[in-house]
């Protein structure tokens, strides 16, 4: 995959970048059901803990999760506002509004 | 930005990766208004044409655009279905359904 993102740090860039990986999306799916400790989140994945923690850092940099320490545990929490911001960006372009407006125009003309 | 995506090629990975860059998002915004030639799309950007064409390739790999040759021009077209797929993925986790259900439960209990 070509890396043309080097050096960019826009919150929207970092958010979409964080979503571009199956492990990170699985973490989001899990956190949808509630907060969880980093070690607990890591369990289902067949990877070294430091590698998994890097994924959490990418999610944090992307604004998709926040973390806090509780004793020796690092608790992760889903940040739905950033998800809403990212889907909001996509939603503006997903629908063919021009096509819809053309069809509405045609309907009005037929009705005249 | 940590590159933990090396080697992955899931269509959803490639789609979100394509969205993680301001140039590529600007191309999507432009194509929202209709098809356009690659050279025409490149004009507003202060970058070498080969660099810009790499961005188009990332968009194409991500399923967000398709391109076709018309004489010497390469025409680009927005693929809204992939945008819908990506926002669909996000939308499933964006809302706090558990919180909403808890609040609904509380409302019913108050009404009893």
UniProtKB/TrEMBL annotation, chains A, B:
Protein name: ArsR/SmtB family transcription factor
Organism ancestry: Bacteria, Pseudomonadati, Pseudomonadota, Alphaproteobacteria, Hyphomonadales
Residues annotated as domain HTH arsR-type: 4-98
InterPro entries membership: ArsR-like_HTH, HTH_ArsR_DNA-bd_dom, WH-like_DNA-bd_sf, WH_DNA-bd_sf
Classification via PANTHER family: SLL0088 PROTEIN (PTHR38600:SF2), TRANSCRIPTIONAL REGULATORY PROTEIN (PTHR38600)
Gene3D superfamilies xref list: Winged helix-like DNA-binding domain superfamily/Winged helix DNA-binding domain
Origin species: Ponticaulis profundi
SMART domains cross-referenced by the UniProt entry: HTH_ARSR (SM00418)
